[in-house]
Amino acid sequence: GDSVTQMEGPVTLSEEAFLTINCTYTATGYPSLFWYVQYPGEGLQLLLKATKADDKGSNKGFEATYRKETTSFHLEKGSVQVSDSAVYFCALPSSRSTSGTYKYIFGTGTRLKVLA
Amino acid sequence: SAVISQKPSRDICQRGTSLTIQCQVDSQVTMMFWYRQQPGQSLTLIATANQGSEATYESGFVIDKFPISRPNLTFSTLTVSNMSPEDSSIYLCSADRGINYGYTFGSGTRLTVV
Questions:
Q1: CA count, 13 A, side-chain hemisphere, B83
Q2: pLDDT (tens digit, 9 = 90+) per residue, A42-53?
Q3: Quick one: which of A53, B4, B15, B53 could link to A68 by a disulfide (CB 3.0–4.6 Å)?
Q4: Contact assignment for A49 to B104 by CB distance below 8 Å
Q5: The predicted structure's pLDDT at residue A97
Q6: CA-based end-to-end distance of chain B
Q7: Are A3 and A25 contacting, i.e. CB atoms less than 8 angstroms apart?
Q8: What span, in angstroms and rounded, lies between the C-alpha atoms of B36 and B99?
Q9: Residue B98 above 80 pLDDT?
């Protein structure tokens, strides 16, 4: 079945360091891919998305490229800030849930801690 | 894009009691979803709530434990019934904006059962 695999955290970086959080997927076809971010004490927010192969999603300095050859959607940022400390989730819409609508599969989440 | 207001943001409850979580969306949405996020883990879908019909529950979740209401296209509630410490989690509601747009989430309810 469809699945999402994320690198395990926590990831601890110094401010202005380069960030990569790996995400690979298995899926039927070429679904849209998403990154969500969860700041401490909050719900999830959509960070960026890509709807087809070779698309690059970007937002707030974060980027991720949909690579079908490697079935990957790695999240990158050139220079992280303390305010980027959060948990990051990779996700894709997968098989339909029992209600008939699409059921999203979320990765296990990667906690990022940025030190000043 | 839709904005979802969820409340309460957190609560500490006694075992055996029930808590109702509310989500209000600022625009009409067809489907709303309820997730559970246990400490340090990813999200697990509890059920899908479609206005005008009974919620559809995922494997491992039952209506008696997690009754859901969806009285209109902008509102939904989830009740966690007869709580035990194992129910301590973050509960999140969300709305589907379409397969290419992802979900919008509420800010979550952090529930602690003592």
A1: 19
A2: 888 899 999 999
A3: A53
A4: no
A5: 56
A6: 37
A7: yes
A8: 21
A9: no
Strand, coil or helix: what is A84? helix
Backbone angles phi, psi at A107, to 5 degrees: -70, 175
The verdict on whether omega for the bond into residue A10 sits within 30 degrees of 0, i.e. cis, is yes
d(CA B66, CA B35): 11
Given phi > 0 = left and psi -120 to 50 = alpha, else beta, which region is B65? alpha
β-bridge mates for residue A44, sequence order: A38
| B:74-103 residues touching chain A, CB 8 A cutoff | 92, 94, 96, 99-103
Give the long-range contacts of residues B51-57, CB within 8 A, separation 24 or more: B55/A99, B56/A97, B56/A98, B56/A99, B56/A100, B57/A98
The 10s digit of each residue's pLDDT in A100-114 is 567 788 999 999 999
Query: B20-62, pLDDT tens digit by residue?
Result: 999 999 988 888 999 999 887 889 999 999 887 889 999 999 9
Q: B37, A77 in Cβ contact below 8 A? A: no
Residues in B touching A41 (Cβ below 8 Å): 110
Instruction: Return the amino acid letter for B108.
Output: G
Percentage with pLDDT > 70 across chain B: 96
> Is B1's pLDDT higher than 70?
no
Scan residues 37-56 of A and list those with Cβ closer than 8 Å to B.
Answer: 41-46, 49, 51
